[in-house]
Amino acid sequence: MDEKERDSAVSLNRRNFLRAGAAAGALAAGAGAARAQEADPLITEVQPWAQGWGDGVDANPYGMPIEFESDVVRRNVGWLTADVISSINFTPIHALDGTITPQGCAFERHHSGAIELRKEDYRLMIHGLVDQPLVFTYEDLERFPRVNRTYFLECAANSGMEWAGAQLNGVQFTQGMIHNMEYTGVTLRTLLEEAGVKPEGKWVYVEGADASSNGRSMPIEKALDDVLVAFKANGEALRKEHGYPVRLCVPGWEGNMWIKWLRRVEVTEGPVESREETSKYTDTLENGISRKWTWVMDCKSVITSPSPQMPIKHGKGPLVITGLAWSGRGAVTGVDVSLDGGKTWQPARLAQPGQAMALTRFYLDIDWQGEEMLLQSRATDDTGYVQPTKNQLRAVRGENSVYHNNGIQTWWVKANGEAENVEVS
Amino acid sequence: MSKFRNLVIAAALAAPLAAPAHAEKLGLGRPALPEEIDAWNLDVSPDGTGLPEGSGSVADGETLFSENCAVCHGEFAEGVDNWPKLAGGMDTLDRKDPLKTVGSYWPYLSTVWDYAHRSMPFGNAQTLSADDTYAIVAYILYSNDLVDDDFVLTKENFLDVEMPNKDGFIVDDRAETEYPEFSKPACMENCKESVEITAHATVLDVTPDNQDD
Description:
The structure holds 2 protein chains of 2 kinds.
Chain A: H1 3-29, H2 41-44, E1 75-76, E2 87-90, E3 109-110, E4 123-128, E5 134-137, H3 138-142, E6 147-154, H4 171-175, E7 178-187, H5 188-195, E8 203-208, E9 215-219, H6 220-225, E10 228-233, E11 236-237, E12 247-249, E13 262-268, E14 283-284, E15 290-292, E16 300-305, E17 317-326, E18 332-338, E19 346-347, E20 349-350, E21 360-368, E22 373-381, H7 390-397, E23 410-413, E24 419-424
Parallel strand pairs in A: 4-13
Antiparallel strand pairs in A: 1-2, 2-3, 4-5, 6-7, 7-10, 8-9, 8-13, 10-11, 10-12, 14-15, 16-17, 17-21, 18-19, 18-22, 20-21, 22-23, 23-24
Chain B: H1 2-13, E1 30-31, H2 34-40, E2 55-57, H3 58-68, H4 70-73, H5 109-119, H6 130-143, E3 152-154, E4 169-171, H7 174-177, E5 197-200, H8 201-204
Antiparallel strand pairs in B: 2-3
Helix pairs in contact in B: 3-6, 5-6
């Protein structure tokens, strides 16, 4: 485009701007213009974006979501923790679709804040009951054979605030301590074999480089099975808040074990029984006895829309009900949806066949006639486990648990399309 | 661990993913030096593995705790505002809203030593010496009425300290207590007679607004 053309485009743009102002006025007058008999000025009037220029390719070297999506962000709940440095926020799962969580809105949990650790300063040590204790640099890790895997990460405390009854009115808060990414990395097995695990080595202790020094123990069987030392997520480098440059992925197991800024893997004879596996991440039953080593995240699902943050605004007629399902013990094989609080159920449609230890998206397309609904979803995994109700869980565990609440969620959808977090008998 | 072994076998039988074959070592990385391992290998296990030489008294611990810990955890480890309480809560575990502290809940003293030494004070971690840590741990025990005020904690007497809730834990038993019950065929019709709403989230009104918080 030469100078002259550009000038004329600019003036066109200006003219257009005036015209668009008039169109906006027309729209306000005939509210709901798209459905009215009158012609829609968005169609009949040439719009500025159809005439002038958008941003050049140098405007956003790394793109952010468009401003109109600025409410699709992580949120935290101030009263939950004493301080935002050791705290948690929540993925806006109500507003997402598909299964992959963009890194920029995937929930965060830190125990001493999200640190900045350069690749050049990164070291990973493998030691303990091994033939040769080793230190790897980031570059070393990149030279091992790589794998790609998609896994969900769910905090064991997801839905924890709901143990004693419905509390938070939004799926972002009730089920949003979860994300699902495609990771690239090296299996922990590859690294352990490089060091050579001694026969007495029955456990590994994994630890992060941040000031919380968060560390967890796991049986060597898991470490040699599917644990991943990851350095990419969704194709790009991990974000700072997710452990850049290297984090651990422990498929199907509680998020606290997915050590960020992984710096140390120690092969041991027994578990370390660190603070995060004794004081926390243990589950107190009604009789005061607590379960420990409750690593696996059981099968769970939730309807993400409609939900309290996603009311039905379009009135009667076709309605897409959608949600997410997952299991730490395998693949989701089916999801049933109830519109009446669990009296009757119908199978939902899985967008893709369930994938082991990854999120599955489901849909149920209905004709909504403005009736009240008590919406529930119930997932089944390939072990035959069927997601229980919250009351079924309470019958076994009592009401003092915090972690591992995988109970069925109920949304009360009212005639006006608004939804509320409720519990039903 | 038999349950776990089955899980591994099941995974092995499932369709193999494209995993790289591990034939031989690649010779990547370098040997970790003994002093490097010592610098990072700080964790302490229930049997005392990892504990350095040293000792500390309740009296010294009281001063150290007051200087380094009390702003958040209170002078008597009773907790300030929303910051964690480290003392109290004895015999509350089987009641509604149990109070879980070092004294009422933690099964191993090693965990207290390890966490205080490696992860605290919050914002200034890994600054406590071994002796300071022994002293502070002694003081936390004293705050929980578990030792007398003249007590001195040492590497040698460490394992003699009895934690009240040491027998309060069982290994995950969901495979026995939950999985059979929750693996019955799912009901599709006439699953219950009536449905009543029993709880509303909006009653509590604790959900953050859309814009901030």
